[in-house]
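User: Before I run my own analysis I want an independent prediction to cross-check against. Here's the chain; please return only the structure tokens and, at the end, one sentence I can use as a sanity check.
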Amino acid sequence: MIGAIAGDIIGSRFEFNNIKSKDFDLFTEKSRFTDDSVLTIATADGLLNRISYIETYKNWPRKYPNQGYGHSFTKWMKGNNPFPYGSYGNGSAMRVSPVGWVFDTKEQVLEEAKRSAMVTHSHPEGIKGAQAVALSVFLARKQSDRKEIASVVGKMFDYKLDQSLDEIRPGYTFDVSCQGSVPQAIIAFLESTSFEDAIRNAISIGGDSDTIACISGAIAHAYYGEVPKEILQGMTKILPEDIIALIDDFTDHFQINY
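Assistant: Structure tokens:
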């Protein structure tokens, strides 16, 4: 979860100003947390305090209403209709990482990821994207190696994970679908040598940079076991106190190292 939020903040200034390079400052005065962080926190809150996903996915965005939510989600969040709207956007995948830390079997992770997606993203690709990210986090947390993560996730979700970033980068453009961004985010992790390198990989391909870095960061945190102190310090300067408090409560309760 912390890795996801770090990736979101670092990637935020590149979402509509892509950079096809790994050479950039991690934090500037333009860095901010976006809807990716708010909804990741909402998922964590739901799991920690047993709040329904419908409730928590409405409450947190209403508290932080100007963080870049999609049009369909905003309409759902503000409205009184609790039913999903069939989305296959990457919103289901960007917010799901806490699920990978909470449950102890692959079956539980897949089922809970589906539950978290279904409240809004009821399209099969929206569900797949959430499940793929949650499972990747889970496998990384359980110390699976990159080869196993790529094999299990690739086969289960029919994602092509054998491409290289050098192959993806030249022609990759903005794509907010799960099927058009989740595999790329996973590959950015698979090619990484450290947590920071995973974030730089993710941002370097362009596209929906904050979300791709959010997903890559979530998996990388689970795999490498920690987020560098300088990145944690950069995050802390940007995040509001209630989000930091929720992170502390969640990580303490589920004994997550960061």
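Sanity check: The first helix runs from residue 2 to 11.
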